[in-house]
Amino acid sequence: MLIENVSPAEIERRSMEIIESELGDTSHLTEQEKIIVKRVIHTTADFDYLQNMNFSENAVSDALKAIKGGAVFVTDTNMALAGISKPALEFLNCKAYCFTGDSDVSEQAKNLGITRSVAAIDKAVKNLCGKKIIFAIGNAPTALIRLHELISSGDIAPALVIGVPVGFVNAEQSKEIIMTDNVPYIISAGRKGGSTVSAAICNALLYMLYKR
Amino acid sequence: MLIENVSPAEIERRSMEIIESELGDTSHLTEQEKIIVKRVIHTTADFDYLQNMNFSENAVSDALKAIKGGAVFVTDTNMALAGISKPALEFLNCKAYCFTGDSDVSEQAKNLGITRSVAAIDKAVKNLCGKKIIFAIGNAPTALIRLHELISSGDIAPALVIGVPVGFVNAEQSKEIIMTDNVPYIISAGRKGGSTVSAAICNALLYMLYKR
Question: Which terminal residue of chain B has fewer beta carbons within 10 Å of its beta carbon, N or C?
Fold first, then answer.
């Protein structure tokens, strides 16, 4: 039955209640991790994320500290960028970027024979040098692999890596590799993820510090 | 094992092969419908869409006819808009719009006590009068309900309604209502869907006419 005359905020509240009631055992999650998982389920209607989501120790509190210090978010798709709450970013004095569609990134990718996603990571690292960066990767396994290389070599130390590429080739493997790195991470193990999942995790973090 | 040095095009080809090999029985789908379902699964890694997706008779061929005639796409989120292939739109002389974030839409919504998604549909209908419109709704049940009202009253006759809002309150119901209308539709029954699903369906249609 259609429920009429309810505000979007009320719909979200009721949705979260339904998710809570159907979640089952969440004893493997901290309270903050559970908030993130619930927002991902809210975005996908897919309860697989209760088991899929992996958090490094203190990933959420580390990320919140970075956000309070004006972290920048870097996404690998314009879709994810479009999905991150602009009022929350503004309130928290944070910025979000996606370089994947930039013409100089396309050119660099072509010249070097790398994917645009990799070239976009390199541009982010160069242009945002000195910033605390939260990378939100929902699409390109190659972007995660590039982050792994830069973390391993000591060239970058991201505030957080959100690694949720969706896919059937290399997505799962790229996420497993990041989980071996010494970096705060939030990862959806297996094939599932995507730009909406990536944006949902960013928003879940932001909403812990920004009351709508 | 990570597969190295493969192009994004090759990764997509192999992904589609994996999806095909795991799909199971697709006898309820036409060849064109199957292409759309496979792209949705490619975008979500969620095989539930094999059973979830509902197509009205000739929905795909009707939509392709509209696209060949320069149809316009109207989405309910900037995320979905960002996800639709710009080269394909340009090649096919089609345009895509999202009015949900417009300031006049916010104002209208506030004044009338309706959601921004409903006000955005009203703006689309007014501004794009005379155009063949493909509505791609991945988020707001209220947008689908508004489309239902306008279709029922004879005010609009969309070329296609892509109805894939995700959610726990009203999403399922709004999709059931559209399926009673006399309109070409592509609908994900139940709770699942979202902006990436909506964009994937638009792209699946565009790619039938635009070879990348």
Answer: N
